[in-house]
Structure formats: C-alpha cells, structure tokens
Amino acid sequence: MDFELPILAPSILAADFSKLGEEIEKCNNANIRWIHCDIMDGHFVPNISYGPDIVEAAGRSTDAFLDVHLMIENPDQYIEAFVEAGANHITVHQEACPHLHRTVQNIHSHDITAGIAINPGTSLSTITPILEDIDMVLLMSVNPGFGGQSFIPSTYQRLQQLVQIREQTSTNFVIEVDGGVKPHNIQKVAQAGAEILVAGSAVFKADDVQKRIATLQNKARLGKGTVA
Ligand SMILES: O=C(CO)[C@@H](O)[C@H](O)COP(=O)(O)O
Ligand SMILES: [Fe+2]
C-alpha cells in the first residue's frame, strides 16, 4: 500500500443509493483516494447491505482505491466475486474466519491487499499470530452492522496498544478505524494511531459533502504523528 497517510475513506453505506454516482462524484471532487464498501449478510451482522454489483458500480464512478469490508460468514466463497467487481483491498473479520490464515492467502492469491477486522469485544491477542502476513488491521470502533452509531471510547486505548504491538513485532500493516468517526473526534482518533479513517454518516449526511471532507481531512492531518 503506497499512500500518503492519513487517508479518509468515505463509506458509501451512508450515501443516497438513488444517486450513487453523484455522491461518489462529490468525493472525487474533494480528492478522495479511498472509498469504503460495507458488505453485510444478515448472518454475521444483523443487517443486509449490498453485494458485488454495487461495488462494481462504485468503481465505474471513481478511480479511488476500493476498500471492501466484508461483514459476512464464509467470506472465501465471495472473494473472487468482489475481486472481479474491482476490489483493490478486502478485509475479513477475525470472528468470521475459522481458517484466517488460509483466507488471507486466498485474498493475496488475487494480487490485492488483505486486512483483518476485529470487533470492539475481541482481544488484540487473537490476531497477533497473523500480523506479519497482513496489510491492514481494521479496528472496529462500533459493533459492526449499522452506520450512524457512536464511537466506543475504549478504541483509543486499543489503538495505542496496536501501535505498540506493531513496533514490538516489527510488522508494517496499516491501521484503519471504522465507526462513529466525526469532526469532533477524528483528530484524537488519528492521534491515537489510526491511519485510515472510515466515515460514513459524517460525510454523506453533511449538507456540504465537499466541505465536510475537507474538515475531516484537515483534522486527521493535525492528529497524525502527535503523541496521545
Ligand atoms: O462497517 C461499518 C459498520 O458496520 C462502517 O463502515 C459504517 O458504515 C461507518 O458508518 P458511520 O459510523 O461513519 O456512520
Ligand atoms: Fe466498514
């Protein structure tokens, strides 16, 4: 992954799907480099979102990097479909993968990058054996399944722990935070160690999407590299 950090990744889950192209165009105009796609299956999480067709449609509206977050059971069954839809990166949940290492190998076999997401209630120790094999850790800062939830404050400490683990293990995954990221907390989230910041409702529910993106990006940059 060769991007200047931090990166703001708007989640199209909060976009108006009746005009998805226009919504993504607002992101293009604000120089957004990543678009986050939330896939929910109604089994792993209690909500259903969308599938590869919408990811493919999003890709037709932008050159941005498509960051696909699979909140689904049996992700191996669908990885190829999302790659064909244009995914540049796929994240799977530790809690949904009994053979996590094999699933990461499966993603990498398609020449794209792989991430592991962990829920707020899952210990960081569950992913330490695989850190050297992955490109991203996605720390969930809400319980997955819905946009528009409140940021869980214990995420700050988990972020700091993850940064320490990365230093101790000399690994080089990027750290993404997802859920409840807003103008009032994004600087602190970046300061605690988040490098990719997902924001759904904070971006697409704003009156002026481009202005909101600029605000979020500026605050994230202010947080970057500062000591918590
Ligand atoms: O993966 C998820 C939720 O499960 C997220 O990507 C949300 O879609 C982010 O939305 P906001 O919390 O920013 O509204
Ligand atoms: Fe997500």
TrEMBL record:
<dbReference type="GO" id="GO:0019323">
    <property type="term" value="P:pentose catabolic process"/>
</dbReference>
<dbReference type="InterPro" id="IPR011060">
    <property type="entry name" value="RibuloseP-bd_barrel"/>
</dbReference>
<dbReference type="GO" id="GO:0006098">
    <property type="term" value="P:pentose-phosphate shunt"/>
</dbReference>
<feature type="active site" description="Proton donor">
    <location>
        <position position="178"/>
    </location>
</feature>
<dbReference type="InterPro" id="IPR000056">
    <property type="entry name" value="Ribul_P_3_epim-like"/>
</dbReference>
<dbReference type="GO" id="GO:0004750">
    <property type="term" value="F:D-ribulose-phosphate 3-epimerase activity"/>
</dbReference>
<keyword id="KW-0413">Isomerase</keyword>
<dbReference type="Pfam" id="PF00834">
    <property type="entry name" value="Ribul_P_3_epim"/>
</dbReference>
<feature type="binding site">
    <location>
        <position position="69"/>
    </location>
    <ligand>
        <name>substrate</name>
    </ligand>
</feature>
<feature type="binding site">
    <location>
        <begin position="200"/>
        <end position="201"/>
    </location>
    <ligand>
        <name>substrate</name>
    </ligand>
</feature>
<protein>
    <recommendedName>
        <fullName>Ribulose-phosphate 3-epimerase</fullName>
        <ecNumber>5.1.3.1</ecNumber>
    </recommendedName>
</protein>
<keyword id="KW-0119">Carbohydrate metabolism</keyword>
<feature type="binding site">
    <location>
        <position position="69"/>
    </location>
    <ligand>
        <name>a divalent metal cation</name>
    </ligand>
</feature>
<keyword id="KW-0170">Cobalt</keyword>
<comment type="pathway">
    <text>Carbohydrate degradation.</text>
</comment>
<keyword id="KW-0464">Manganese</keyword>
<feature type="binding site">
    <location>
        <begin position="145"/>
        <end position="148"/>
    </location>
    <ligand>
        <name>substrate</name>
    </ligand>
</feature>
<keyword id="KW-0862">Zinc</keyword>
<feature type="binding site">
    <location>
        <position position="178"/>
    </location>
    <ligand>
        <name>a divalent metal cation</name>
    </ligand>
</feature>
<feature type="binding site">
    <location>
        <position position="38"/>
    </location>
    <ligand>
        <name>a divalent metal cation</name>
    </ligand>
</feature>
<dbReference type="GO" id="GO:0005737">
    <property type="term" value="C:cytoplasm"/>
</dbReference>
<dbReference type="InterPro" id="IPR013785">
    <property type="entry name" value="Aldolase_TIM"/>
</dbReference>
<keyword id="KW-0479">Metal-binding</keyword>
<comment type="similarity">
    <text>Belongs to the ribulose-phosphate 3-epimerase family.</text>
</comment>
<feature type="binding site">
    <location>
        <position position="180"/>
    </location>
    <ligand>
        <name>substrate</name>
    </ligand>
</feature>
<feature type="binding site">
    <location>
        <begin position="178"/>
        <end position="180"/>
    </location>
    <ligand>
        <name>substrate</name>
    </ligand>
</feature>
<feature type="binding site">
    <location>
        <position position="36"/>
    </location>
    <ligand>
        <name>a divalent metal cation</name>
    </ligand>
</feature>
<dbReference type="GO" id="GO:0046872">
    <property type="term" value="F:metal ion binding"/>
</dbReference>
<feature type="binding site">
    <location>
        <position position="11"/>
    </location>
    <ligand>
        <name>substrate</name>
    </ligand>
</feature>
<dbReference type="InterPro" id="IPR026019">
    <property type="entry name" value="Ribul_P_3_epim"/>
</dbReference>
<feature type="active site" description="Proton acceptor">
    <location>
        <position position="38"/>
    </location>
</feature>
<comment type="function">
    <text>Catalyzes the reversible epimerization of D-ribulose 5-phosphate to D-xylulose 5-phosphate.</text>
</comment>
